[in-house]
Amino acid sequence: MSLREHALSLFRSAVGTVQPAPMLKRAVKLQGDRCPQLVVKGQAFPVKRDLYLVGFGKAVLGMAAAAEEVLGDHLIRGLISVPLGIQESLQRAGMQEMLLKPHSKIQVIEGAKNNLPDSEALKGAVAIQELAEGLTADDLLLVLISGGGSALLPAPIPPILLEEKEKLTKMLASRGAAIQELNIVRKTLSLLKGGGLARLAYPAQVVSLILSDVIGDPLDIIASGPTAASSHSVQDCLHILAKYNLLLNLPKSVETVLSSSPSKPTAPEDYSHVCNIIIGSNTLALDEAKHQAEGLGYATLILSTAISGEVSRVATLYCQLIRLVCLGFAGLGEGPLSDKVRGNLLQLATELEIPGLNIAKFLRALRGLGPERPVCILAGGETTVQLQGTGKGGRNQELALRVGLGLHRAQAMETSSPPGRCEIVFLSGGTDGQDGPTEAAGAFCSPELVDEALQQGLDVEAFLSNNDSYTFFSQFQGGHHLLVTGLTGTNVMDIQTILIRATERS
């Protein structure tokens, strides 16, 4: 198999392990007939009376189909809020296992067109709220949560209207508020977010199964944390509104809610009836890819599951890592050139502030790798692209194109060229199968890409300056370097794979 085929195989195995059905069935079992228990990752929850299910998010339809299989007749009723058109898309893609069976006890409400809260999503949220409010101490509520859940669960605290809440959110965004700030305001003004759903379901036992699409898997951030205690207060919300000069422009309804809300976050003991369990994450996906890569004979290292920052800076980080491995393969792992590259990497890692990344430790691990075994470096997370052009692309395709350009420049600078003694493939892909507004999940690149593109009359730098990576990859060698998987029905952010093997010296 070629390096490219290996990279594709590793990506598919990583995504496969966080597919909703197998992931949920691995984590959840129902045991015992007379005194049934729901067992989640070894934790047992007695089913005393009735078992109900609610869910919201982009991957929840597949999770619900698998949950209904596991729960069987014990499930009394279910209600899920999923993206508009998802059932038809999965049907068209032949993904029957993601769809509910005929005569299912689970009602599906589709909404949040273009991932924005709307009246249909509001209907779904109200129905979920009513179900939660009617539960008793003997009931068990299973909650399925995945990325995209926030837009599918809009329930403004009365008398606030959805339009008023959305207008306020848009005003904050237009004034430069960060996503974390927007989430704090949303949670403060919501009945269900920020632990609201868990509070309404009291005194029922609440068990949440969560597929994380957020770096670090913070329970109160994924889908705005409907079953997790909020770590923020009304004061935090007021502080953000003041920061962006919006305190004097608030609708009367928002003023009413803010003045009557408790000023401190809810104490953790209010959530003793709740158990939140992450059943799928980027870490799980990368661990599976590592296992597969080792089976293929690669010396495999995971760099981080929290790669974030501007895409051009992240591309530079990957190019420098590749350069260091190739120097090591050429017997130049120690000396001024390698020391300079290591220094660059330490500086870059400091600037990017990637959570939990110990680059010094990672570089020590790299030092032990020689040319006798190919090397695989895996990473995950979510980069950001600063849009300067009007082209079509996504962060994964842009990252791959920038890495291709960086490797080309590194080779051009080094006439004795250690990278020339290495075969290199880089792949970046979104685990949901969709990178930006394109049909691709991401793209592959290698150091030869820029020269081969020039032979076709394609100027990589011109495409990058217009943020037009998808158009480039579509035109280059008939789209051969695009990663096209179709919608996967899951989402645990992005995955990057670097494969390097030594080539024979001529």
In short:
The protein has 506 residues and is α/β, with parallel strands linked by helices. Helices cover 40% and strands 20% of the residues. The longest helix has 19 residues, at 311-329.
- Helix vs. strand class: alpha/beta
Strand content: 15-25%
Shape: globular
The residue ranges in which pLDDT falls below 50 over 5 or more consecutive positions are none
End-to-end separation = 22 Å
Number of DSSP strand runs:
15
Largest sheet: 6 strands, parallel
How would you state the average pLDDT, rounded?
Answer: 93
Order of strands, main sheet, comes to 6-5-4-7-8-9
The radius of gyration computed from the alpha-carbon positions, rounded to a whole number of angstroms, is 24 Å
Structure description:
The protein is globular. It has a 6-stranded parallel sheet with strand order 6-5-4-7-8-9, sandwiched between helices. A 6-stranded mixed sheet has the order 10-11-15-12-13-14, sandwiched between helices. A 3-stranded antiparallel sheet has the order 1-2-3. The protein is 40% helix and 20% strand. It has helices at residues 3-17, 20-27, 60-71, 86-92, 119-133, 162-174, 179-188, 196-201, 234-243, 252-260, 282-295, 311-329, 336-352, 359-367, 395-413, 449-455, 460-465, 469-475, and strands at residues 28-31, 37-40, 43-46, 51-56, 75-83, 106-111, 140-145, 205-211, 274-280, 299-310, 375-384, 422-430, 442-445, 482-483, 494-502. The chain contains 18 helices and 15 strands.
